[in-house]
Amino acid sequence: MGVVIETEIWEPNKGLYNFMFICCFLSILCLPNKTIPNVFDHASSSSLLRFQRTFLLFYSLSSVIDGLWAVFGEYEWAYYGVSKEQMVMSLCVGYGVSLLIGSFLGMLSDLIGHKKLCLLFYLLHLFVGIWKRITAEPAFWLASICLSLASSIFSFSFETWMVVENDKLSLRHDALNNMFWLMTFFESVSFIGSQVLGNWLIDSNVNKNIASICNAAIVITVAAITYVTRGWKEASQVASFKDYQILFYRNVISEKKIWLLSWVQACVHFSAVAFWILWAPTIVADGRDVSLGLIYPCFLGARMLGSTGFPWLFNGPLSIRMEECLVYLLIMMGLVFSIVAYDYQEIGVLVMLFILFHACVGMVLPSLARLRSMYVPNEVRGGMMSLSLVPANAILLFLVLQGGYYKSIWNSTIMAFSTLGLFSAAYCMHILKKWGKQLHQNRRNL
């Protein structure tokens, strides 16, 4: 009689989800009165609060659209017969387009208006959805180009729109700071929602329901386009290209602080993208059987929890200097990558390290957004944000091409690059902190 050996599929403890949910709820519920966002106060009907509520709903839907394509990303490609080499080349094409075109879309957004760029974001997603729906064998390199451009727009246009409109309606910086961490919080919730929606649409029948992902993306995108065209009024841009060049050079190119902040932003972006490329291969290394679909929400839940810590650290009773906190957060993120890159870990330890990484990301993202509001004028904010991603996209293109296509770089080497980048970002933030202290002391001595 043969012996049947059953393999156990590793899954995270179900109590972990409840723990994160309760922690997020308590973190928001117990905020001091002066830091509680009144976005959800329906008794208030000011124009600022109406805008904030509408924007968060609008931003959440946009995040769902952006996340739907990632739910069955590689599986969908394999379903249509795309080889691994073709997948890698599609990624390289996408990063190349982000580098050559996406890096300059922020400047275009500053010049012609953020509404037009957000419309382009939806039109790109709409084109991909329709193209996949009507084509039996869609060209995935074309989809990669469109989605890469859409992701580039998503990285700066919505935040810039929110900041500009907030400044028009209010001079309160606490309202703007609350929106930063709420954006990170709702984006993470929406990514989890996109996974739930995608799984519900597929319903264990991939062959029959694979096209339902495209249908959902098309419907949500059309609804968003309708809102933008009818419900969003934006003042026309009056600055000429020459005036914008002068303003951009004066406030971005010639400012050392902006160079440091841009490098930090590029390093965080690179490490986050590298994580989403490598986390699954790292966990399933050596043939380990893991339920990846149940691990994915843990990372996003950790990012939600990290975002709720932002008001506690910078506005609440634990108020500390932002640059100093970012130094420690970036060092912690670098240590996580260094451990994973150079030391073999069990699945449970790996998941906890990745959860810690995303908790730090949830706090870093709104912190960087607040620093941008302190150092970068709104007129050039989009250009600064998109141009700062040039180093990240260039290194990603090189590493994906070398590691995924030519097989000349190990995954641990890519993580080592992330580690070095995060440590250098921490050093840049340390310098920025020293310059801020010197400026403060000089003002006191005057």
UniProtKB/TrEMBL annotation:
Record keywords, A-Z: Membrane, Transmembrane, Transmembrane helix
One term under GO cellular component: membrane
One Pfam family from the record: MFS_5
A GO molecular function held by the record: molybdate ion transmembrane transporter activity
InterPro entries linked: MFS_trans_sf (IPR036259), MOT2/MFSD5 (IPR008509)
Entry annotated with the keyword Aminoacyl-tRNA synthetase: no
Transmembrane segments: 15-33, 54-72, 87-105, 140-158, 179-198, 258-279, 294-314, 326-344, 350-371, 383-403, 409-432
SUPFAM superfamilies xrefs: MFS general substrate transporter
Family, similarity comment: Belongs to the major facilitator superfamily. Phosphate:H(+) symporter (TC 2.A.1.9) family.
Protein name per Swiss-Prot or TrEMBL: Molybdate-anion transporter
Organism: Olea europaea subsp. europaea
Biological classification of the source: Eukaryota, Viridiplantae, Streptophyta, Embryophyta, Tracheophyta
